[in-house]
């Protein structure tokens, strides 16, 4: 607390500092890529996560594309590491907001239908590696995979630059119930079948933490179920 009286300034420590726990989901999804968090470039952290994803989850493909916009930087990193060319496969409608926070399934699916369009010229007849930052409910990814195959993609391999989102969060993400999270109730193979992908692989928590600097000062609650606050407060 800073106290200013008649031009005199003094600083008073009201309590001891708590351990710092930065939200990992903020880094992989919510933050703008041109911003910095705790002095670190979000763009560079996401690109490094994409590189680690390519090391942990290789796939044979003809093209790397992203689920825009939050998956784009990780897709660039994946393409760089895998030496598979990156190109646009999906064009985003800039006037549609985030679909996973819509209150009903009907609204989420409606949002997805007008949010993305496939660039058929780039995906038709090709083995596509689709990189995204996360799968929350699964609604968006299922729709995207279906759109890509409907546009003639020979194969669609989904790669996620974060671990499965298995646990609810009331600290920043609007995912209060585990039942609403597809990874909270299904295995990776089951999710692959639900979304219709030819393969599915997630970056490990260790790989993500290494990408963001390796420090143990991040909240991993939505991935690990370990929260930096008392669970009774959630």
How would you sum up the global shape?
Answer: elongated
Largest sheet: 4 strands, parallel
Unreliable sequence segments:
none
What's the arrangement of strands in the largest beta sheet? 6-9-10-11
How many helical elements? 9
Helix and strand run: EEEHEEHEHEHEHEHEHEHEH
The number of distinct structural domains comes to 1
Find the CATH topology.
Answer: Rossmann fold
Q: Which CATH top level class fits?
A: Alpha Beta
- The CATH architecture category equals 3-Layer(aba) Sandwich
Class by alpha and beta content: alpha/beta
Percent of residues in beta strands? 15-25%
Structure explained in plain terms:
- The protein has a single domain, classed as Rossmann fold.
- Helix content is 34%, strand content 18%.
- The mean pLDDT is 89.
- With 234 residues, the chain is α/β, with parallel strands linked by helices.
Concise account of the structure shown:
The protein has 234 residues and is α/β, with parallel strands linked by helices.
Give descriptors for this structure.
Rossmann fold; 12 strands; single chain; four-stranded parallel β-sheet; 34% helix; alpha/beta; 234 residues; two-stranded antiparallel sheet; elongated
């Amino acid at each position: 607390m800073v106290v200013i009286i008649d031009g005199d300034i003094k600083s008073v420590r009201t309590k001891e500092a708590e351990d710092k726990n930065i939200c990992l989901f903020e880094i992989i999804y919510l933050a703008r890529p041109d911003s910095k968090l705790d002095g670190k470039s979000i763009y560079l952290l996401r690109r490094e996560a994409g590189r680690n994803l390519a090391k942990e989850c290789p796939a044979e493909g003809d093209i790397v594309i992203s689920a825009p916009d939050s998956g784009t930087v990780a897709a660039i990193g994946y393409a760089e590491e895998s030496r598979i060319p990156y190109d646009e496969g999906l064009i985003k409608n800039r006037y549609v907001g985030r679909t996973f926070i819509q209150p009903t399934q009907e609204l989420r699916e409606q949002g997805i239908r007008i949010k993305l369009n496939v660039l058929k010229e780039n995906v038709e007849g090709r083995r596509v590696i689709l990189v995204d930052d996360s799968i929350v409910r699964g609604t968006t990814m299922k729709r995207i995979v279906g759109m890509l195959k409907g546009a003639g993609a020979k194969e669609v391999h989904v790669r996620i630059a974060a671990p499965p989102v298995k646990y609810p969060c009331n600290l920043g993400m609007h995912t209060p119930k585990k039942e609403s999270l597809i990874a909270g109730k299904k295995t990776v193979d089951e999710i692959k079948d639900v979304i219709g992908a030819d393969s599915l692989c997630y970056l490990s928590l260790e790989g993500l933490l290494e990408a963001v600097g390796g420090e143990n000062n991040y909240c991993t609650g939505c991935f690990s179920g370990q929260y930096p606050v008392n669970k009774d407060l959630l």
